[in-house]
Amino acid sequence: TTTTTTTTTITNAQSDATVQENRTALVFGASSEQGRAVIEGLVDAGFGKIYGVTSHLTYASRLLARYKHEHHILKNRVYLLECGGGALSNPQQVKQVLSETKARYIFLVTATDLPRHAHTKGCREAENMEYDAIRSFFDVLVEVYKEDGLERNVVFSSHEDVRAMCILDNRRLSIPPLEDGSVVPNFSGKGRGAEYGLQILSDYPDLTLSVITLPFLYSNFLALCCPLPDKGQTEWQISACLGDDAIDMFSEHDLAFIVPEIFENPSIYSQCNLKLTAGAARLNDIAESFSAFFGKDVIYNPLTYQEMANLSIPTAACMAQMCHFFASYGGSTSSYSKDVAESLMLPALRRPQTFEEWLLLHGNAREFQEVGLTAKAVPIISVCVFDADTVEGINVAESLLKNDNIRSVTAVFSDFDSEPARRLYAIDPERVRLASISETRDEKSLKKLLEGTDGVFMMIDMSDAGILHRDEGEELHAINIIDACEMCSVRHIVFCTTESIVEMQHELKWPPSNNEKAEDDESSLKSTKLSKPLRSITQIDAYLHEQLQKHPQKMVIDAKARIAAYAKSERITVTFVILPMYPENFIDLVTKAGVVTNNVDNAAMHFAPEKEECLLACMSVQDLGRAVARIFDFYEEYAGHEIGLATDFITIREVAQVVREIFFESRIDNKDDTFANDANRIVQIQHVHEQMQVDGTGNRIIDLGAIFGFCSQSDAVRKRHSIAKVLNLCPEPTTFKMWMNENKYNPAFREKLGLR
Description:
By secondary structure, this protein is an alpha/beta fold. It is 42% helix and 15% strand. The chain is built from 33 helices and 25 strands. A seven-stranded parallel β-sheet has the order 3-2-1-4-5-6-11, with helices on both faces. Strand 4, helix 6 (122-148) and strand 5 (152-158) form a beta-alpha-beta unit. Helix 17 crosses helix 26 and helix 20 packs parallel to helix 24.
């Protein structure tokens, strides 16, 4: 595609007043695994227009396939630009893209155009071509800056300059060069380019550069190190010269959280080379994880360097050099840092993905299907819904009965003779089975209940009676359910969880001691200019043990988080849905204010945060049922995913305004309404503190206010609750205002507002 085509693509992009132009982002290498992850992360993090530059537009256009339902959100936000001959091959195209997009946030990842036969002299040439392209990019960046003076922040995904490392330390790294003298050319060109970028941009304070250096990537197990079967498909082997010791590994998907965080704090990470890892693992352990996940015999076959270099695969010698580098560079002497990766992901309340978690997400990949590791997914036709007494459980059960793919629903009630239980049974007696909670209290009864069940929905009761009085027994009961699911070969669990207070306490309210401050000063992270010192979860957990004695209403949140972690450890396929604030909850938060203004009683909206502009993730519980039903339909697609449910982000002040508009102002048009002066009524916001009691509500308002008030204080929570992802599950959700309109004549709500 010519330069003119690129100009037309950018010029024709419609403007959007809601997009912050100074948050425009540019992703070079949009069709790569890293580029796709970064674009997804920038979308979720709320960046403005996002331009993805690629040399393969048809392939890169798949980026938008996942977002087909949220076109009204991504409209005028994600654009894919094609630069013929390679995204960086033409300096004029690069200059044009930089100048016309005026993007302040730029992610750069490059590929090495290696020849298919690695023993030819083309490898060194491919390395030099990549280096020249990277060098040209930074030269053009400086040139454009001199013309427009615009600040720009660049994150460059790189690898080590292995050739230079071998020259400096040939004792430790003794890697045989190829015929043309190249050593891991697919790494060395990037490493040289990173050094050049750091050097040239050091003279321009308005141009920041952060280099992220990556170790062995999990995605290699989809190609180079994919387990291959023997002739009878009775055993699969991972064949590589990766040695017997642990090597550092990483998931490219984590860049979705890391790159936006660097962009949020460019000055902190400027001129840093951040060497990331999710931790080190032995290939024998990786093979065991494959075996446990697929139920097949997978082993690691350690090759020598020469054996791997002689394999009949493209670029075999280059790949052998790469594996030999990781085998030699791993262990205790590695410079990759898990602490750095964790610190970068902490603001998003995430941790680097383990291999087992990566495998959960990619277990149904085409590459694993082609080698016979995975079979076609067996559909889920029977589901057991625990905690059917809860508003979540009953909505999920009702939604499953609307799904023709589900042939039976077992609903567990504390009292299956209750009105909700009878109402659910009446929907479809042939498909509904009612069970009592007493049938689930021991291992034998749980196994009997779940025999023949394909899917399970579970959560912890957040009812009025239970929220302040949960003990370890309830948590143990949930763990017993998970164990029973494994024994009964349940295919998938959808687990309703909430934000982890252990993690959030670090983000929001950690009170450092003098000793901790001293430790922070001595932190090894100082060299990477990290502003948020890392503290271990053990420290946080110890602090919380004391704090949660004073704030028992938060115990239930962390119990859910611990149970979710246990489900992951059991290697059962699970989808975690993080609960939002329900519009239905606002009925509990509203009362008469007891204050008279203009001769009428005002309404009061009770809430905990002192800041009324705190955003809350909000979604109707009815949409939860629809979302869960769809997850069971496509459970392999959502296995291992954590989906923060939200259809709105709304402040308590906006809630009060919507209540006034719908319930009071609209009454003026009704000439027969004797309460026309309701238009003069206001909706006050009264902050509830732990010492306060609200008449007629008991502790319910305090509990809800404290929990959701606490969660609303962190940007990290909002990053985890994605409207875009929810729209894939519920294409036509009920927004907060829609729900209020639908419940305009709800007797309970109207009575609390003093309306007839």
